[in-house]
Design a protein that fits this description.
Blueprint: E1 6-9, H1 13-26, E2 29-35, H2 42-46, E3 49-54, H3 65-75, E4 79-81, H4 91-99, E5 103-104, H5 109-116, H6 118-127, H7 143-153, E6 157-165, E7 168-173, H8 179-194, E8 199-203, E9 209-217, E10 223-235, E11 238-244, H9 251-267, E12 272-280, E13 286-292, H10 299-306, H11 310-318, E14 335-342, E15 344-345, E16 351-352, E17 356-361, E18 368-372, E19 387-395, H12 398-410, E20 413-417, H13 423-431, H14 433-436, H15 444-455
Parallel strand pairs: 1-2, 1-4, 2-3, 4-5
Antiparallel strand pairs: 6-7, 6-8, 9-10, 9-12, 10-11, 11-14, 12-13, 14-19, 15-16, 17-20, 18-19
Length: about 450
């Protein structure tokens, strides 16, 4: 492959800003795309070129493939970086990019197609020897067939869309009497959101850790992992706090989970940056959940503990170069924590709370990183994700990292008309005894929100 000279970022928000910054360091020109509501946004000003691609709704702009391709062609881009969300895991988009002569900075279309279908991914990973939770190996056609399987597994179970992602397209069922209705609702939602109503069922773990492994794989067959992240603190199956390394896990267990991720990636010929996600039960057994074939929102915590620029490695891989790092160089050092500041109201079950920012003070100081695209006067469009900023800290040990994050959040002030944020709620998480003891799991935020509702 030839050297990449100009990259179009087919995304928006903080990830567009983040990709532009690495490209600038590498001497690579950048093209931003934007919808009409985003015309005066940070990534538009930072890029070397900017192209308007449509109105606010994503399906008419950031997810509209013809507009993205035409923008790349008109500006002379030779590569397209999809960021995360939108088209980042769309095999059709990857295939179109390649057919039109653009380097797709991501996973090849054929692998995206296999791993994007979660039922197929489960079968492939099972064949590669990765442990799975009890559940269906294939998609299920009817609610009756699915409930028979669920009754045999035992409740609770989770119904999942094969095309789901980002916490959408799944529903936990605890009572067999609710199964048929929940099945129909999940199928209707999956059809509406993803255009694919196929579903499968697996056992649901109430008390589990969400552990994920960052991998990098080049076109020469080298696959490495960069350690484990803990992403257990979630609301509606979407993450709020992430940490690397995953605290409280024996080195031997982390090595086994990492080796499983590498084995799974090798089995499917994976290329690019990706994340293998696992659930860890209280007995220390881990189970494969899914593969995210893209950069993750929480990738900065891995960068902070390894010193590796994951976007730079993505660009190296996409241009056909070998990885610039060895497995030994990827050993984590210290502790990094990321908190997501979203325009959501925790007192109203994290309902979106968009508006116009009148005040925006973000933290700084030693070993504090902020990935954001917002500033005073920014109006939050209603069409997109509610993420305003990611605050990431690094420290030599976990207690210092928690103290540093508390200080950083205390220095954060985001206010505006109609706006509520998760900032204060993040403080509550950091102060919770179970989090401080590294004894937290995916149920902790649900417990905290129940307490909030009871107190209000």
């Amino acid at each position: 492959m030839s050297e990449i000279r100009k990259v179009l970022i087919a995304n928006r928000g903080e990830i567009a800003v983040r990709v532009i910054r690495t490209c600038a360091e590498l001497g690579i020109a950048t093209v931003a795309v934007y919808s009409e509501p985003d015309a005066d946004s940070a990534w538009v000003r930072l890029a070397d070129h900017a192209v308007r691609i449509g109105p606010g709704p994503a399906k008419r702009s950031y997810s509209y493939i013809p507009a993205i391709i035409e923008a790349a062609r008109a500006t002379g881009a030779d590569a397209i970086h999809p960021g995360y969300g939108f088209l980042s895991e769309d095999p059709d988009f990857a295939e179109v990019c390649e057919a039109e002569g653009f380097v797709f900075v991501g996973t090849p279309a054929a692998v995206l197609a296999e791993l994007g279908d979660k039922s197929t991914a489960r079968a492939l990973m099972s064949a590669a020897g990765l442990p799975l939770l009890p559940g269906s190996r294939d998609t299920l056609d009817t609610a009756e067939e699915a409930q028979t399987l669920a009754d045999g597994i035992g409740y609770p179970v989770i119904i999942k869309a094969v095309a789901g992602g980002g916490g959408r397209g799944m529903r936990v069922v605890r009572d067999p009497a609710d199964f048929a209705a929940d099945w129909q609702e999940t199928r209707a939602n999956a059809t509406a959101v993803f255009g694919d109503g196929r579903l499968y069922v697996e056992r649901y773990l109430d008390s589990a850790r969400h552990i994920e492994v960052q991998i990098l794989a080049d076109v020469h067959g080298t696959v490495i992992h960069l350690g484990a992240r803990d992403c257990s603190l979630q609301r509606r199956h979407q993450k709020l706090v992430e940490e690397s390394p995953a605290p409280g896990l024996p080195d031997e267990l982390v090595a086994r989970i990492g080796a499983a991720a590498v084995r799974g990636a090798e089995a499917v010929g994976y290329v690019g940056a990706g994340t293998f996600e696992f659930l860890l039960d209280p007995e220390g057994r881990f189970y494969f959940m899914e593969v995210n074939c893209r950069l993750q929102v929480e990738h900065p915590v891995t960068e902070m503990v390894t010193g590796i620029d994951l976007v730079a490695e993505q660009l190296r891989i996409a241009s056909g170069q070998p990885l610039s790092i060895s497995p030994e160089a990827a050993t984590p050092r210290g502790v990094a924590i990321e908190c997501r500041i979203n325009a959501e109201d925790p007192n109203r079950e994290f309902a979106p709370a968009p508006g116009t920012l009148t005040e925006c003070v973000l933290p700084a100081g030693p070993f504090v990183r902020v990935d954001t695209h917002v500033a005073p006067g920014y109006s939050i469009p209603p069409h997109y994700d509610s993420l305003l900023a990611k605050v990431i800290v690094w420290a030599p040990d976990r207690n210092t990292a928690i103290a540093r994050m508390r200080r950083a959040l205390s220095a954060t002030c985001i206010r505006g008309t109609g706006i509520a944020t998760t900032t204060d709620f993040l403080h509550d998480i950091l102060d919770h005894p179970r989090f401080r003891a590294a004894n937290h799991d995916t149920a902790l935020i649900g417990t905290l929100t129940t307490q909030i509702r009871a107190a209000s």
